[in-house]
Amino acid sequence: MAVFTHLNREQVEKFLLESKLTDLKSFEGILQGVDNTNYKIETSGGRKYILTVFENRINPKDIPYFIGFMKHLSDGGITCPFPVHLGKIDTKHAAIFSFLDGRDVKQDDITPALCNELGILLARMHLLGESFQMTRDNSMAIDAWEFRLNRVGDAVYDYLDELQFLKTHWPKDLPKGSVHEDLFPDNVFIKDGHIYGVIDFYFSATDFLAYDLAIVMNAWCFHSNNQLDDDKWNALISGYQSIRPLTGEEKDAYHILSRGAAMRFLSSRLHDLTFHDPQNLVTPKPPAEYIQKLEFLKHAKLF
Asked: Roughly how many angstroms between the first and final C-alpha of the chain, as a whole number?
């Protein structure tokens, strides 16, 4: 459930008018997602938009970065929500974005061919991200993993050694730029069987490009038993390197980065499950998937 702020027609029409859009035909809440409130807007001329109300997780100081990064990618040829208007509805920051056709990727859609397309798209995004001038610290970096694991307490004792290992061996000097940092299948749209666009940039930050690749590998390239699918991984990295070959230093660090990507989602899922508010209708995702992926990646040879 992602409609945390309920808007009436008068509020929507007033906000549209600020952006010089008129003739509201319909609006409806979008239930997918977990952090912000989203409405699908349609005007009488048949044009569609997304109205996003930024909720408490989003720091208002970060909004110009998110908006700017989306605009930078869109200007560079990546299909993603294009910001049309930024303002406030009552006390909350809100924005109107262009509407993306297609639908989000389902598990059955993920083939080696689609992973190859994704690798190409990701590399294009990374090249553009290197040239984006604004910066933002990663709010889900190692200190955030440590905070969440410590808050959960004794249940995570087995993962503290791994956390210390990652802190000790985390690379310090790899190619960096603005990256998505949450490019799961539900944040990628397909149309006519091919990758079409990217949404949900609210974890984006300035970080290692290869770490973003490792997040994508974790999210896209594993079997249902949480063992690596070699065909999908080989297709992803082949597509990626056809546009942006990894450096030797990135390949050397990739084993650590891939474990870190698994630890990031393991720590956040453990934390969200432990401290889930029953009044929040969003169901926490189980951490078992990333527990198993982390165990696999400890012993994996990826390059």
From this structure: 40
84-104: pLDDT as tens digits:
999 999 999 999 999 999 999
User: Please, which residues bridge with residue 222 across strands?
Assistant: 228
Q: Which residue intervals of the chain are DSSP H helices?
A: 9-18, 63-75, 112-130, 142-152, 157-169, 209-220, 230-243, 248-274, 288-298
The token duo for 261 is 């990507």
Where in the chain are all domains bearing CATH 3.90.1200.10?
103-298
pLDDT of 19 > 70? The answer is yes
Closest CA to 97 of 201, 170, 9, 246: 201
Does pTM top 0.90 for this prediction?
yes
Strand partners, 300: none
| Exposure string over 73-107, b if 16+ CB within 10 A, otherwise e | bbeeebbbbbbbbbeebeebbbbbbbebeeebbee
Query: What is the model's pLDDT at position 70?
Result: 97
Amino acid identity of residue 150, one-letter, is N
Quick one: which of 203, 33, 202, 231 has its CA closest to 119? 231
Nearest of 184, 209, 187 to residue 196 by alpha carbon: 187
Tens digits of per-residue pLDDT, 134-170?
Answer: 999 999 999 999 999 999 887 677 788 999 999 999 9
| Start and end residues for every CATH 3.30.200.20 domain found in the chain | 9-98
Superfamily of domain 103-298: Aminoglycoside phosphotransferase (APH), C-terminal lobe (3.90.1200.10)
pLDDT digits (tens, 9 = 90+) for 169-217: 999 999 999 999 999 999 999 999 999 999 999 999 999 999 999 999 9
Q: CATH topology for 9-98?
A: Phosphorylase Kinase; domain 1 (3.30.200)
Contacts of 300 (CB under 8 A, 6+ apart): 228, 255, 258
Tell me the β-bridge partners of 191.
Answer: 194
